[in-house]
Design goal:
Keywords: Membrane, Metal-binding, Transferase, Transmembrane, Transmembrane helix, Ubl conjugation pathway, Zinc, Zinc-finger. One of its GO terms (molecular function) is ubiquitin-protein transferase activity. This is RING-CH-type domain-containing protein. About 55% of the residues lie in helices and about 10% in strands. The protein has six helices and six strands; from the N terminus they run H-E-E-E-E-H-E-H-H-H-E-H. The strands form three sheets. Strands 1-2 form a two-stranded antiparallel ribbon. It has a two-stranded antiparallel sheet with strand order 3-4. A hairpin with a 6-residue loop joins strand 1 and strand 2. Bound molecules: zinc ion (2 copies).
């Protein structure tokens, strides 16, 4: 290959990279209109795909840019199509959270059964059934006390699990910052 040919090739490559920008998350080149600048980062770090930003948010669970510390401005657009939904997950991968998650699921099945008994057969029969197993003494009171405590504890876990699930299964739109910060 002649040196003129080599020069032409690098020139056309330069032209191509001047026209298309790179997404800093997936590193793919793309047209300007497919990318947004959600934060104060400039230059090669400025541009991202909306879908890449949403994916990053799902993994990292943060709306702050790791580089410039600017908060991304995002808007929740309701839930994704149900085919894309994921299963609810424990709050973290630690064994305590995994255990809490499993217990919370069992607990909600148990409460659903209690609730069914309460609605279908009335409160009297439900209380009688519990005292039939535990008697009327200390054990009975202890059981209802721990029932109330479990209710509070597992409700707060289920609340966080559902909250995370909604965050992970929502569609988002992200605000482009280009106009705001470029003078
Ligand atoms: Zn991308
Ligand atoms: Zn940034």
């Amino acid at each position: 290959m002649t040196s003129a040919g080599a020069y032409e090739r690098t020139a056309s490559e330069r032209l191509r990279s001047a026209r298309s920008l790179q997404c800093r998350i997936c590193l793919a080149e793309d047209e300007k209109q497919n990318l947004i600048s959600p934060c104060k980062c400039r230059g090669t770090q400025a541009n991202v795909h909306v879908s890449c930003l949403s994916h990053l948010f799902e993994i990292m669970n943060t709306t702050t840019c790791q580089v410039c510390k600017e908060e991304y401005v995002m808007e929740r657009k309701g839930l994704k199509a149900w085919r894309e939904w994921s299963w609810p997950k424990p709050l973290s991968e630690s064994w305590e959270d995994e255990l809490d998650f499993r217990c919370a699921v069992l607990w909600s099945l148990f409460v659903a059964r209690m609730f069914y008994m309460f609605v279908a057969r009335g409160p009297t029969e439900m209380f009688e059934k519990v005292s039939g197993v535990l008697g009327d003494g200390k054990l009975y009171n202890f059981w209802w006390t721990s029932f109330a405590l479990n209710m509070v504890y597992y409700s707060s876990i289920l609340y966080s699990v559902v909250d995370n699930w909604i965050a992970a299964n929502s569609a988002y739109s992200w605000k482009d910052n280009k106009g705001k910060n470029v003078k």
